[in-house]
Write a structure and sequence with these properties.
eight-stranded mixed β-sheet; 8 strands; 52% helix; Rossmann fold; 2 domains; 12% strand; 13 helices; N-(1-d-carboxylethyl)-l-norvaline Dehydrogenase, domain 2; alpha/beta
């Protein structure tokens, strides 16, 4: 299979390297500093060890890691690849600069994809000769454990590039979804933003603590949402399905929605949330807790892999 270039060796780039190497692809992991690349190699080895321990690998960690070649040469990383996955900082000028280089260096039929969380591709690819093969492929952090990837073309992206990207991600074990037209934040962050907006309001207005609002999600909504989405949830929550649910509860949700205003994330509000979180988890424990999160995600993914896909009743 043709190789993949992963541009940027931070957290997301490292996770993408695992995704593609686990799927059998040769991966060239590009970083500008040798220290960053060395740290990436160590981090990838640790993650693969944890994934192997939870049954998420079909090969040895060493066999997968051997497919990942770190490099500080962007031209070398892009040679002969089918896909370039870019993972640099979230600014339009930075995206414009790197995509200008990628368009010049990558094979003319390679798909150029950005992992950006918020910026539509039209804002940084308009002036490129190869803009027809550019798109956003926004992963969920970390993509080696959470398989969703949002594929969002620019208005000028060729359908062939979109189709090849969807196929590449699916063959790599991801769950690609197509964002039919550009929108800031794409799908996941807009849905996540709606939830965050409401929990911020509920906390700011004194209805509950941060700990109890977290419990509402992890012991309530999150349990169902880990294997079905909101549309299927309401379809199953009334005897006759969605239309029945809407008739019973639609007016109530409309009234609640009308009362849900935007939240400005004021410094005072953020300070209050920070204070509650730091009483629970010290700043020096964040990295350790993040690894705990990833191990829990691995166990959940291993469980999901053992279950029927749920496509049929």
């Amino acid at each position: 299979m043709p190789s993949v270039a992963v541009v940027g060796a931070g957290l997301i780039g490292r996770a993408w390297a695992i995704v593609f190497a686990r799927a059998g692809r040769q991966v060239r992991l590009y970083g500008t500093r040798s220290a960053t690349l060395d740290a990436a190699v160590r981090s990838i080895a640790d993650t693969l060890h944890d994934m192997d321990a939870t049954g998420l690998l079909d090969e040895t960690p060493g066999a997968i890691a051997a497919r990942i070649a770190p490099t500080d040469s962007l031209a070398g990383a892009c040679t002969g690849v089918a896909l370039v996955q870019e993972n640099i900082p979230e600014t339009v000028p930075a995206k414009q600069a790197i995509f200008e280089q990628l368009d010049a260096l990558a094979p003319p039929d390679a798909v150029l994809a950005s992992s950006t969380s918020w910026i539509p591709a039209s804002r940084f690819t308009a002036a490129l000769a190869g803009r027809h093969r550019c798109l956003v492929a926004h992963p969920t952090n970390p993509p080696n454990l959470v398989p969703l990837v949002e594929v969002c073309p620019a208005p000028w992206t060729a359908q062939d590039a979109v189709s090849r990207a969807m196929d590449l991600y699916a063959r790599a074990g991801q769950e690609p979804v197509l964002v039919r037209r550009e929108i800031d934040g794409f799908l996941l962050n807009r849905i996540q933003g709606a939830v965050l907006n409401e929990v911020l309001n509920l906390f700011e207005q004194g209805y509950a603590s941060t700990a109890d609002l977290d419990k509402v999600m992890k012991h309530g909504l999150g349990l169902r949402w880990s294997f079905m989405g909101p549309f299927e949830t309401i379809d199953l929550n009334a005897p006759a399905g969605v239309a029945d649910y809407a008739q019973r509860y639609g007016h109530t949700y409309a009234a609640v929605g009308a009362s849900q205003g935007p939240n400005a994330w004021s410094p005072q509000l953020v300070a209050g949330i920070e204070a509650e979180r730091r009483r629970v988890l010290g700043a020096d424990q964040l990295a350790q807790r993040a690894r705990w999160r990833d191990v829990r995600l691995m166990a959940l993914r291993a469980h999901q892999r053992r279950q029927p896909d749920g496509s049929e009743p």
